[in-house]
Amino acid sequence: MEAIKSSYFVTISPQGVVMALSSCISLSNQTSPFNINETGTHGTLEFPVAIYRDDVTENFVNWHWHTEIEIGYIEEGTVLLESGNRKYTLTKGDLFFINTNVLHAMRNQTPTHSSVFRSIAFDSSVISSNTDSIYYKRYLHPIIHSTNFRDFIWKSDADFFPKLEHIIRNTWEIIRHEPEDYEISVRNLLSDYFAVLSHVHQADSVSSSSVNLLLEDRVQIILNYIHANYSKNITLDDLAMVANVSKSEVLRCFKSIINISPIKYLKNFRLQNAAYMLKNSSYSIQTIYELCGFDSNSYFSKSFKERYLCSPREYRDR
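^ thats the sequence. predicted structure below, dont judge the formating
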């Protein structure tokens, strides 16, 4: 029984959801189904580990971040991983690591072919919650607090690839099937993962020149504001004020990371919310476009048709 993580963090398997393999719903306290600051727990409070299977053939995993570490591999096709201002093209079998609170997105690199990846999101407390322990001091802290080691990928010919591949695939399957005492097995495997990762971190830290923390922080602030206030009138002046930068700097930040203007991103985000509401609510079309920040039905319908190639009513009926 598999629940597939939606590319917009909203879809739940109609068969139901098991504890571990579940849809990635953003757990912000905002009402939008697309909030990207995932402030909730992946898994459960007692065991904060969860697995996901993302089919990004036609959709994408939108820009987001979370306090959990995310590791995984490409099951099928080619996936573009965007992490801050860095871009990685991953093909079938490649492994990836995304550190805590790193802004990232994933999408299909070859639209004519299917693309799927599997991932594990877990809090470091699964390995050790005691900050005075040797496990935390020697293995966890140097990595999760590294300003350079924000992400990493492994191809099949890379050092440590066989070991890490075995750990990730084995952990994913154990969590999926939940055999007796599986939590102990998962904790041991993730500890082994960090033991290997500590060697990778020492030998191959990402160059500091490729990491712009200030830029990423500003974009996160702006995205948080957009996602919390998308139903209201938002201007470039508002975004500049909330990030405490100039309007030109707002544009530069978005161009460097998101690769579109913040106003276009806001419009797309509103349309994504509208499409979700059309599919999953009984609200009238007028109520939906008002909730999503559009001033008129004509502008909403025109914009919606440009993006989804059908009218809002046709989308709902279909």
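The chain has a mean pLDDT of 86.
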